[in-house]
Structure formats: structure tokens, C-alpha cells
Design goal:
Strand content: 25-35%
Number of helices: 8
Shape: globular
Largest sheet: 8 strands, mixed
Order of helices and strands: EEHEHEEEEEHHEHHEEEEEHEEEEH
Helix content: 10-25%
């Protein structure tokens, strides 16, 4: 697997770093091998490759059926990568877009300028978090869905729909019916169009679930992070119960024990399984730090091929 490159664990038994010493092009990385490594390790960091936003975008497009976005971010050139601009404060663990009905399969990062101090991206494997939760808590999360409810301003939901329609309509032509069209049939969400053009949604999902590549349960969700560019969602169980303090303490303790950090190098590319891992960041202590982010859905044929070759990895007990 990726035999022409040097591969090492990112941390002991977790993640994979793929390194080249000769500035090989990103296009030399076999896509099936890369995605198989992702299935086994949960996240992969490509280090030392000849990379830039253009090659980063090309890599994403080569394995993705659809590119999605955060409507509050600006594209950094082209229609794939977006510059991460979320202030300087720490960010809690979350799956990308996990508080919305549009949760991508894959999350991508490209480091243009690393921080000289601190400012690490945090990463947390939901497979291992799940093993640390008490049995009664596991039963609760398996039996009861959680909900995220909040309004989305008109410009943001229309920008998202424009992207998901792949430019088939102009932003000005997009209607509420188009929002319904781009919402996948297997997503449980209730929308309400408001007089000011905003849309209020209530999204129903399980905090613990199987992953893109396997059948093991991962605790991967967005109940731990505040909302930076939007009104914070109301998060509760489907039956209206709150996520009480004792429950959240169990979650925080389990995730803290499984949280690691990515110290970025210039030109690093990271690929994360968004169905399995949560990510966040430490406080930005060097504002020159520059990262690009992208979100996508994996091609069905690639996912099928990978499922035949690999099963999600897990450390020995």
C-alpha cells in the first residue's frame, strides 16, 4: 500500500503520514491506495509532495462525485478549496457540516503557511471514543436521535444550493423547491421558509453510527462545537430532552482521551473520513497560519472498491 513512499503512524497506532523525499507530484499517489489507507487509518497526511491549491483541488475532484461547501466561506480560487477564516479562538471537535443536513463524506485540508507556534488542528477518532463511553450511554445514543435546529439566512442557503446544483441555475433563480431537491432522500430534516427569505431547519441524526467504509460504530458528530459563522443551533434529543451535564461530561472525557494534534508543515495535504473522525483546532497563536479546506462526497465506485480491499483499522485492546 503506497509502497513507493515512506509511511508512518501519525501518532502511535492512529492516522497515517505518507512522505516523499523527492517532491513527487500529488498525481503520483494512487487514488484507490490513498482511499484504502483512509479506510484503514481514518485520516491520511501527505507530506513533502509538490502541492499547491490547484493540485489540491485536482486531487479532490479525482475521487469525489460532488464538491460541497460552507456557505459562509469564500472560495480561494476555483470552486473547490475555501480559505479557513474562523477567527483566532479554539474550535471544539466536530464533523464538518455536522449540524446541517449536508454532511460530506470527506474533509480535506491544505496548508499554505504553517503556524510558527501552536495553532494545531485537533483530530479525534470516533471509533475509539465509542469504546470509552459507558454501556448505558452507548445504548442511549444508539436508540435516540439528536436534533440540530436553527435558521439559515437566505444568501447562505441559496449559495449552498447553487453549489450543489453545479451552477445549473443562477443564485437569483434558486427557489425553496430547489433546496428540497438537493436534500438527499435519506436525510431526515424539516424545513420552514420564513417571510424574510431565511429557512429554519430541524435536522435529525444519530450521534453514533456506522462509517463510510465499515460497519463498526463511531461516535462522530457536532455536539461539542459552537457555531462561528451562524446562529448556534439548539441541540437536544429527538424527544425534546436536553443533553444533560453528566452526559456531556462523559463525552468530553472520552473525546479528550482520544484527541491528537496535527502540526502542519508547508504543503501538507490531509484527508479525513468525516463519517468517522471529528476535528477542531487549538487557539490560533500565529495569525499568519493559512489553511484551505474542502468538502466532498466520495465516488460510489471508489468506495465500493475500497470496501473490498480494506476494513477500518482499530488499535489492539
Amino acid at each position: 500500500m503506497l509502497d513507493r513512499f515512506v509511511t508512518t503512524d501519525h501518532t502511535e497506532g492512529k492516522g497515517l503520514v505518507v512522505t516523499t523525499a523527492d517532491r513527487a507530484g500529488v498525481d503520483t499517489v494512487d487514488r484507490i491506495e490513498l482511499m484504502t489507507a483512509l479506510a484503514e487509518h481514518g485520516y491520511v497526511v501527505l507530506r513533502g509532495f509538490d502541492s499547491d491549491p490547484v493540485t489540491f483541488s485536482a486531487l479532490i475532484q479525482s475521487v469525489s462525485s460532488r464538491i460541497t461547501l460552507d456557505p459562509a466561506r469564500k472560495f480561494a480560487g476555483g470552486n473547490v478549496a475555501q480559505k479557513i477564516e474562523a477567527g483566532l479562538v479554539p474550535q471544539g471537535l466536530h464533523v464538518e457540516n455536522g449540524a446541517t443536513p449536508w454532511v460530506p463524506d470527506l474533509v480535506w485540508f491544505y496548508c499554505e503557511t504553517p503556524a510558527k507556534i501552536g495553532s494545531q488542528t485537533t483530530i479525534c477518532d470516533g471509533l475509539y471514543v465509542w469504546d470509552r463511553l459507558p454501556a448505558r450511554t452507548q445504548e442511549l445514543f444508539l436508540s435516540t436521535r439528536i436534533t440540530f435546529a436553527r435558521p439559515m439566512p437566505e444568501d447562505k442557503w441559496k449559495n449552498l444550493v447553487f453549489r450543489l446544483l453545479d451552477g445549473a441555475k443562477s443564485v437569483e433563480q434558486i427557489t425553496f423547491d430547489d433546496l428540497l431537491t438537493v436534500t438527499d432522500d435519506d436525510v431526515d430534516v424539516k424545513y420552514q421558509l420564513r417571510p424574510d427569505g431565511s429557512v429554519h431547519y430541524k435536522y435529525f441524526t444519530y450521534a453514533a453510527h456506522t462509517t463510510l467504509f465499515g460497519t463498526d460504530i463511531a461516535f462522530a458528530n457536532s455536539i461539542l462545537t459552537p457555531s462561528v459563522n451562524y446562529e448556534p443551533p439548539v441541540i437536544e434529543f429527538e424527544d425534546g430532552r436536553p443533553l444533560d451535564a453528566m452526559l456531556m461530561r462523559q463525552v468530553i472525557e472520552a473525546t479528550e482521551l482520544e484527541t491528537d494534534e496535527i502540526d502542519w508543515h508547508e504543503g501538507d495535504i490531509a484527508l479525513v473520513d468525516n463519517s468517522r473522525l471529528m476535528h477542531g483546532r487549538r487557539k490560533i497563536r500565529d495569525p499568519r497560519r493559512s489553511l484551505y479546506n474542502a468538502q466532498s462526497y466520495a465516488k460510489d465506485d471508489i468506495v465500493g472498491a475500497v470496501r473490498e480491499l480494506a476494513s477500518p483499522g482499530r488499535r489492539s485492546a
